[in-house]
Amino acid sequence: MLIDSYFNCIIEFLTQCSMKRQNVRTLSLVVCTFTYLLIGAAVFDSLESEFEAKRYDFLQTLKKNFIKKYNVSSEDFRMMEIVIIENKPHKAGPQWKFAGAFYFATVVLAMIGYGHSTPVTIGGKAFCMAYAMVGIPLGLVMFQSIGERLNKFASVIIRRAKRYLQCAHTEATEMNLMLATGMLSSIIITTGAAVFSRYEGWSYFDSFYYCFVTLTTIGFGDYVALQNDQALTNKPGYVALSLVFILFGLAVVAASINLLVLRFMTMQAEDAKRDEQDAQNLAAANQPVTFDTEHSTSYNMQGKLLSNSNYTNEFDETASICSCTCLGGTRCMNHEPFADPDFRPTDIIASNLSLKRASV
């Protein structure tokens, strides 16, 4: 009995260790993510902190000189700051007419969140929360669906290109699709950077930075398109181009993310299947075969005696361990080793020895 409990504990322990493989992966991802955050914080600190201090000192010097030159009180200067900051969004024109509102709704649905314009009234804030609760899931599903269609279209193009090039394998692999969507994303970002550099007057690097921050939905808000020269009202074509860039670019990024999610889900499913198979193999390899007699005896699947090694019977020379129910008056291929072909183990049937079939 103690030996049976011991083997059962070993099986349970090995099964739990096998099933904890996914937990180990999750923990490893958490540790790697926090390590990555620490590394990023250290790099940003070394790159930005010194420049931030110099810029702050420079702005404080300008403030003091301005107050001294025009004899402005600190309260008046603070009021001027508020007026300048609050007036900045209006440089693009009315923010809450249809064009500006449509641009704001797109930014909310895409979870970019520039922060260039925000609702002020209680009704606007309440509607913004309700609108986001419905619009964000809808947008995610839409971008995901468009991403799947783009992946399907890319797979067709890749297959035809491989057939044209007479490749040995014409199927589009995940790596092919990831390369295709990566190239398309790069084309969109570089093209968009050139367009925004022309219309906004930014440098190409700043425009590239804006496109990347937008399509990754980071949306810092330090660079926002359509905020100069009454662009929302005077440049409808540019407004439409900006909206198309955001929507189509997010769809392409969603296609890349879709491939990564599918790959991760495939890895998770493979690990779960492998763990389940390992658990079944462990259970099958240690499943005991028991005989119900006056002295209970247990064997594992390899025929190893687990307990009561003093078991003896007068039929030991002829009895066999068999998973069938052939111990009777019929002949069985498993019992061909019997010396007498006319032997019938009726005495065994008459005894109280019975066999339990092992379940694997």
TrEMBL record:
Organism of origin: Glossina austeni
Protein's membrane topology: Multi-pass membrane protein
TM segment ranges: 26-44, 96-114, 126-146, 177-196, 208-226, 238-264
Localization terms from the record: Membrane
Annotated ranges, domain Potassium channel: 94-150, 186-261
Family statement drawn from the similarity comment of this UniProt entry: Belongs to the two pore domain potassium channel (TC 1.A.1.8) family.
Biological processes annotated in GO: stabilization of membrane potential
Top-rank taxon: Eukaryota
Name the UniProt record assigns to this protein: Potassium channel domain-containing protein
